[in-house]
Design goal:
There is one protein chain. The protein is of the alpha/beta class and 527 residues long. It is 39% helix and 20% strand. The protein is built from 17 helices and 16 strands. The chain has an 8-stranded parallel barrel with strand order 1-2-3-4-5-6-7-8, surrounded by 8 helices. The longest helix is centred in the C-terminal third of the chain and has 21 residues, at 506-526.
Length: 527
C-alpha cells in the first residue's frame, strides 16, 4: 500500500494568525503543491466559507493537477438532521471534488459538551454521512478531532468512532492531535493500543499533528513508523497557534532518512522553490532557519566545520543540499578560519588556494572588521570586493573618487520633512557636483550619487534599492551608538546583491554600503 501525502495548507494552514489567501492565491498555492508531488490537496470548506466555495468552482476549470487529488473539507451531518437535508453536506457534494474530508468528534467529552448530543447519535452522524458520500462516488477521509485526548479519557468510545467510520466506507480514519499536546512515544503507544484493541490495520489510519509541543513532525514520523500510511501537514508548518507539521520536513525525513517513497521521482528537489514561492504568496518572510528549505539549513559558520567540509561536504551536511533544491553556504564571520575564507571565496568564483599570503591577509582583515562590528554573513558583495582588493589584478576599478558629500534635513512649516544631499566626486578625471532630494537622508544621498554617475554609467538606471536595514550593534547605546547598515540592490534583470557598512554615524555607514553596492554592480555589468 502506497503512502498518502495529504496537504492541508489551504484549509488548516490558512488558520495561521495574520494569513489571508485570496481565491487567486489559493489556486496558485494548489499548483505549487501539485508540482511538489503531494497526493491530496485539501482546498477548504465549501458551503461554510464563500471564498472556498468560489475556489472549488474555479478549480474545476482552472486547475490541471498532475499528481494531486483535490479534497473538500466539511463536517458530519448535524445532530437530529437527516444527512440528505443537511446543507453543509450538500455543499461538499456541490464542490464536485473526487474526495471529501469529514471532521468528526472522537472525544466523548466534546460530543456531550460541544455537540450537546449523545455518543450514539455522534456515531450515527458519522455513519450516515460517510455512507451518503460514498454512495455518491466520493472517497472519504474522516478526521477524528481530539482523537488522542479522547482515547486517553475513554478508549472504548474513541475506538468505536474509528470502527464506525471505517465500517461505513471511509478510506482512512485520521488520528488528530488537535491541541498539539502529544509526544512521539505517546503517539506510538496509542496507535499500538488502538490496533491491538480493534484489529484495525494501521494502514487504514492517518495522522494529523499540531505543533504546540514542537513535536508535530516527530509525532507524524512516529505514527508512520508505527504503520500509518496517510500523513497530513502544511507548507512551512503554517497553521493555528504554533502551526502544523511542516510538510517539507515530513517528506524529506521520510524519503531521505527512512527511505520511504513518499513523493514521485524528481519532486523532492522542488522543495525549496515551492516553499519560498508559497511564503511569497502568503506574504510571510521565509524562515531562514527552517529545516531543509531554509537559507541557513546548510550554512556553516565555524572554521572547524569549514576545514572538514574542504575534505568532504557530507562530513557536516546531513544530506546533500541539492536533493531538496538547496545549496551549501559558508558564512564569513569572526569565527571563520582560513578554510572558511577559502571555501567562501571559491563559492564566489575566486581561487585563494594558490595565494596563501593573500588568504592570510583576507582572513586577518575579516576578523579585524568583524571585531569592529562589520558582518559579511549577509553581505556577499562586500566580501567579494574585499577579497578582490587583495588579489593581483582582480580588484574592480572604483567608479569615482569622493571629494565630499553633505546631507541636510529640513523640517518645513507645513510639517513636511525633506532631505537634500550634495555629492562632489571625480569621475574619469572630471569633477562632478550633483544634488538631489529624497524621502530621507540616505535616499537623498543615493539619488545624488546616481545623478552624478549616470551620465558616465548609464546602466545605473537599472539599479534600485531593494532593501535597507539598520541595526544598533550590541554593546553600544544611545544616539551615539555604532550602527550597521545592510543595503540590498536589484539590477532589474533578476539579479541582486547585498553590501554592508559600519560607522557611528548612520549616514556614513550607509555611504559605505552604497558605494560598495554601486561598485559591485558596475563591475558585474562591465565584466
Amino acid at each position: 500500500m502506497t503512502f498518502q501525502v495529504y496537504d492541508t495548507t489551504l484549509r488548516d494552514g490558512a488558520q495561521r494568525e495574520g494569513l489571508t489567501y485570496s481565491v487567486v492565491d489559493k489556486l496558485a498555492v494548489a499548483r505549487l503543491l501539485d508540482e511538489l508531488g503531494v497526493g491530496f490537496i485539501e482546498g477548504g470548506w465549501p458551503g461554510a466559507v464563500p471564498k472556498d466555495t468560489e475556489f472549488f468552482r474555479r478549480a474545476r476549470t482552472e486547475l490541471d493537477l498532475k499528481h494531486a487529488v483535490l479534497v473538500a473539507f466539511g463536517a458530519t451531518r448535524k445532530a437530529g438532521v437527516a444527512v440528505a437535508d443537511d446543507p453543509q453536506v450538500q455543499g461538499l457534494l456541490d464542490a464536485e471534488t473526487p474526495a471529501v474530508a469529514l471532521v468528526a468528534k472522537a472525544d466523548i467529552r466534546h460530543v456531550e459538551r460541544a455537540l450537546r448530543t449523545t455518543g450514539e447519535e455522534n456515531l450515527a452522524m458519522i455513519r450516515d454521512t460517510v455512507t451518503h458520500l460514498v454512495a455518491q462516488g466520493r472517497r472519504v477521509f474522516v478526521d477524528g478531532e481530539h482523537f488522542f485526548d479522547g482515547y486517553r479519557y475513554d478508549p472504548e468510545y474513541t475506538a468505536s468512532v474509528v470502527q464506525t467510520a471505517l465500517a461505513a466506507g471511509a478510506e482512512r480514519f485520521v488520528l488528530c492531535d488537535t491541541n498539539g499536546g502529544m509526544l512521539p512515544s505517546q503517539v506510538t503507544a496509542a496507535i499500538v493500543d488502538l490496533t491491538t484493541r480493534t484489529g484495525v490495520a494501521p494502514e487504514l489510519l492517518g495522522i494529523h499533528c499540531q505543533n504546540d509541543t514542537s513535536c508535530a513532525v516527530a509525532n507524524t514520523i512516529a505514527a508512520v513508523e508505527a504503520g500509518v500510511k496517510h500523513f497530513q501537514g502544511t507548507a512551512n508548518g503554517y497553521g493555528e497557534r504554533p502551526g502544523n507539521a511542516d510538510i517539507f520536513a515530513l517528506v524529506a525525513n521520510l524519503q531521505l532518512k527512512l527511505g520511504l517513497p513518499v513523493l514521485p521521482e524528481g519532486c523532492l528537489e522542488q522543495m525549496v522553490r515551492v516553499s519560498h514561492a508559497i511564503s511569497e504568496i502568503a506574504n510571510i518572510a521565509p524562515d531562514t532557519h527552517q529545516a531543509y528549505v531554509g537559507a541557513a539549513a546548510f550554512a556553516h559558520k565555524a572554521g572547524l566545520h569549514a576545514s572538514a567540509i574542504k575534505v568532504d561536504p557530507l562530513l557536516y551536511n546531513h544530506v546533500d543540499p541539492a536533493v531538496v533544491g538547496n545549496d551549501m553556504r559558508i558564512l564569513v564571520t569572526e569565527m571563520a578560519g582560513r578554510a572558511s575564507i577559502e571555501l567562501k571565496s571559491r563559492e564566489l568564483g575566486l581561487d585563494l588556494a594558490g595565494h596563501p599570503e593573500t588568504l592570510t591577509r583576507v582572513t586577518k582583515r575579516v576578523k579585524e572588521l568583524e571585531a569592529g562590528g562589520w558582518s559579511f554573513e549577509a553581505a556577499d558583495a562586500s566580501f567579494e570586493l574585499l577579497v578582490r582588493s587583495e588579489l593581483p589584478d582582480a580588484a574592480p576599478p572604483r567608479p569615482f573618487a569622493l571629494e565630499s558629500y553633505r546631507v541636510l534635513v529640513e523640517h518645513r512649516e507645513d510639517g513636511a520633512v525633506v532631505s537634500e544631499a550634495t555629492v562632489k566626486i571625480r569621475v574619469g578625471g572630471e569633477r562632478v557636483i550633483a544634488t538631489a532630494e529624497g524621502n530621507g537622508p540616505v535616499n537623498a544621498l543615493d539619488e545624488a550619487l546616481r545623478v552624478g554617475l549616470t551620465r558616465h554609467y548609464p546602466q545605473l538606471r537599472q539599479f534600485e534599492l531593494a532593501d535597507y536595514k539598520v541595526r544598533i550593534l550590541e554593546g553600544t547605546v544611545g544616539t551615539g551608538a555604532v550602527t550597521r547598515v545592510l543595503v540590498e540592490t536589484a539590477d532589474g534583470a533578476g539579479g541582486d546583491w547585498t553590501t554592508v557598512g559600519v560607522h557611528p554615524n548612520v549616514v556614513e555607514a550607509s555611504w559605505h554600503a552604497l558605494v560598495d553596492s554601486l561598485t559591485f554592480g558596475l563591475a558585474r555589468t562591465t565584466e
